[in-house]
UniProtKB/TrEMBL annotation:
Signal sequence region: 1-31
Protein name in the entry: Si:dkey-288a3.2
Record organism: Astyanax mexicanus (Blind cave fish)
Keywords noted in UniProt: Leucine-rich repeat, Repeat, Signal
PANTHER family: LEUCINE-RICH REPEAT, ISOFORM F-RELATED, PROTEIN PHOSPHATASE 1 REGULATORY SUBUNIT 37
Domain of life where this protein originates: Eukaryota
Length: 244
């Protein structure tokens, strides 16, 4: 994996081009690097020269204008098949708009990791809009504060999505009533999902929520091949659905 030394920023552009020509690059890591507009623009020579398996922006200090510019270049050059923007919480409206457009238009991007980012208001809307026509097959949204309205927005798009096969939603404090009901609705309409991770949430089949959770579990066995519900309090009634 390529990763510029953090203390020296992105370094000499010509040096990076030489490095790229001397080795076969599969992953490009910019994790933890401060990326303003000027820094992102300087990456164009790299992005147009190599298509990476992974571009890792996890924890990058990605400013709004820089994020927008970088996403536009990634789309134009089809620079990656896997993008990780986890813990990059300063992308701003323009950055999320550019990401949404990238997801809708890219012909090669098949996996997105957007973990540890609060998907509230505009980010949730931008991502959901993209998922209406995205070619993504794997989506990681762990620890993104999805419970409630953000999940409702996401489910509305995923009901119509015909590409996504794996969805990871652990650590989102998803509850047993409203959230379980939304997920049940998703699984009634979506026929492409094959793996769903609901681990480390607040799903329980006790009390008034039992009917919603049991309904969710019934939907899970209709088409989902792998279901993860670890560290939830789902007991006998719902568990029987998964065993049948």
């Amino acid at each position: 994996a390529l990763s510029p030394h953090h203390s020296k920023g992105l370094g000499c552009k010509k040096c990076w081009i030489i490095v790229l020509k001397l080795c076969i690059c599969f992953d490009f890591s910019l994790s933890g690097v401060h990326l303003d507009y000027r820094s992102c623009e300087s990456l164009e020579e790299i992005l147009k020269s190599v298509q990476f398996n992974l571009i890792n922006l996890q924890g990058a200090e990605l400013e709004e204008n820089g994020a927008s510019s970088l996403m536009e270049m990634m789309l134009y050059y089809e620079s990656a098949t896997h993008l990780d923007i986890s813990s990059s919480s300063s992308m701003g409206v323009s950055g999320w708009q550019a990401l949404s457009w990238l997801l809708r238009q890219s012909g090669c991007l098949w996996r997105l990791d957007a973990c540890n980012i609060p998907l509230l208001e505009f980010p949730a809307q931008a991502l959901s809009k993209a998922l209406l026509s995205s070619r993504l097959t794997v989506l990681h949204l762990e620890n993104t504060c999805l419970s409630g309205k953000p999940l409702f927005t996401l489910v509305g798009a995923l009901k119509k999505n015909a590409a996504l096969q794996e969805l990871y939603l652990c650590d989102n404090e998803l509850n047993s009533y409203q959230d379980a009901m939304q997920l049940g609705e998703l699984l009634k309409y979506n026929r492409t999902l094959r793996t769903i991770d609901l681990g480390n949430n607040a799903v329980s089949d006790s009390g008034k929520a039992a009917m919603c959770v049991c309904s969710l579990m019934s939907c899970l066995i209709c088409g989902i091949k792998l279901t993860y519900i670890y560290n939830n309090t789902v007991f006998l009634a719902s568990g029987l659905h998964l065993q049948s």
